[in-house]
## 1
Amino acid sequence: MKKACVIGWPIAHSRSPLIHNYWLAKYGLEGLYERRPVSPQDLPEFLQNLAAHGYVGCNVTIPHKEAALQHIHHIDDVVRRTGSLNTVYLVGNKTHATSTDGEGFYRNLIAMVPGLSLQGKRAILIGAGGSAKAIIERLLRAGIGEICVMNRTSARIEDLKASFGSVIKILPADHFVSESKSAALLINATSQGMAGQPKLDIDLLALPLDAVVVDLVYVPLETDLLKAAKARGLRTVGGLGMLLHQAVVGFEKWFGVRPEVTAELYNLVAADIEKEQHS
Ligand SMILES: NC(=O)c1ccc[n+]([C@@H]2O[C@H](COP(=O)([O-])OP(=O)(O)OC[C@H]3O[C@@H](n4cnc5c(N)ncnc54)[C@H](OP(=O)(O)O)[C@@H]3O)[C@@H](O)[C@H]2O)c1
């Protein structure tokens, strides 16, 4: 039986087992996806002996997404450009790694807003952490014209400029309203708005009516940002779809079937999130 897992330290909160075990059952595949706590000191040994530990691959989460790079045989261009990985798979007896957050973000966006063209357009990105980097890498490949980044810690935007060049612009908070007048896309890639975290305090009034507002946060499923955007008549995309779409790549590599992101899967994971929120 093929087995995959998610490794992290700690690992208690991952919803990946729910997603992958749903697909295994749906496609009638004999396999298992489990949570596996791996400490930073055990990480090199675990990745170097993935098959001996019984796995065909794994997802990698906090705090190992950067540290894992040096213990993988082959990393792809996305990992090279973003400096982090989240999916490991075996080819023969060699480990290969990719990063699927950017792809998950993009596929979900296109699924929710069919026909959306980003060619030459302006995006406003709030946040400059790991997910912001993954999104920038994917938006550049989609032909985005300019990405204005707003972040609490401005030094992190300088790092993004150093990695991705002049397509990245620094957006000071007091310029947000004026600069949002010509934005096609607004993305929250911070934890603001997540249950138990501070609210994201921005004013959407200047965004054009054809702009799309995306929130990576998926607890709650509909954040205050998305509610405010809907109230203005803007198109909105929540974070749960990205989580589901980013899982597709790993599942196909490990189990040999390209799985579908369906409403049934969305509802299954959404129900789990709602159950947690009300417990
Ligand atoms: N839907 C999905 O599939 C998916 C995938 C990945 C991530 N996410 C979500 O995206 C969010 C960011 O994840 P990440 O991996 O990029 O995390 P990260 O690397 O830790 O970055 C966190 C970002 O949030 C900002 N931030 C955190 N608390 C803040 C506060 N109180 N006020 C202002 N800014 C604050 C940080 O600003 P500083 O630089 O100033 O610290 C940074 O820009 C999380 O909510 C995560 O759950 C969702």
## 2
Amino acid sequence: MSFSRFFSDDLKLYRQSDVRELLKVTEQKKVISFGGGLPDFSMFPFKEAIEVLEESLMINFQRAMQYAPTKGISQLIDVLKDLMKIEIGLDAREYDDMIILTGSQQGLDLAARALINPGDIIIVEKPTYLAALNSFKPRKPVIYGVSQDSDGLNTEELEKLLRELYSQGKKVKFLYTIPSNHNPAGTTLPEERRKHIYELASKYDFLVFEDDPYNLIMFEGQPMKPIKSFDHEGRVIYMSTLSKILSPGLRIGWIMAEKSFVEAIELIKQVADLHTSTLSQFIAIEWIKRKIYKEFLSRSVPLYRAKRDAMLSSLEENFSNEGSWTRPKGGLFLMMYLNRKIDTKELLKFSMKRGVVFVPGESFFHDSSGKNTMRLNFSYPTEKEISKGMRLLKEAYTELISA
Ligand SMILES: Cc1ncc(COP(=O)(O)O)c(C=O)c1O
């Protein structure tokens, strides 16, 4: 039977993520993966994490097994508010509210549903997070891109674009940005540019959708003040997640934003999944209260820093004449820009034969430019694998260019 004739027209608008496909390959056999964005759990404080759960889940067993409010368990909202205040100095204002999400990925989808009408203009970074593009595109927006330099989004270019659009009578709905330790670019936006973005949003009256999963994974200096901390009007939607500081398997993210927006998200979430897993929320409450995330970060950040350094020196050894790359101050990724106009999707075919994978850059660009770029993850492979994988990648590259 041909099943496809039953599908909706909109199904065509959903794209398979290249990263998901890669993860399937890496699950199947032993490959060196620079592909996914996986934390390294070798440093996870398992013993402490399990001990605190044993105590608390006994007491909270009935509640942890039950349905919960769509907005999330209020105790979790409270501990996350404290976490944001302590770690990044971010305080909820009187007009703000919070909702717990099933991973911040859900926030991308729900925010797209709440905000985007077909034809609305949204602005993203070039490159941006591919799953954000995959969430926005089915709502049929018109997407504009603003390039990044080594410090992240070029706000002068953003201002120029806004002037042009507004002179044509066009209004922007929102800017989606990942200001700290960017996925995939590995960039961190300085404070002046964060302020500049906010000023522009105020002046040209659009929203800022700030996605901040990597701020606490900082190798140099302190986490950055989010753009949300400059928000005195309620135009910044702040989103974060426990995926990179505790566990992606918990599937817990959150949005802090203006009350009526949070209400809208709550309404749509009710349809999507009723609420985020109660059990996960109870685990998260304990792990945050008992500072398991702090313990994990204090062990994993030095490890990731060493892995970043290993990747930077392997790149220097193998690719110094062939391209350039970002030098992330934190996070899990860096981006390589090859000098030659080769398609890294082709390179991936050659490197997979040698047992190394990465994510070709094209899918991180809303206009499918960036074919000669690639995202490289350094948090998951070991230092040894990084050095071996980079040698194999260079061999694959040499084979491709001489083919
Ligand atoms: C920028 C960004 N936003 C959102 C997500 C989704 O994360 P999760 O759904 O695990 O919270 C990720 C995951 O890698 C990400 O890098």
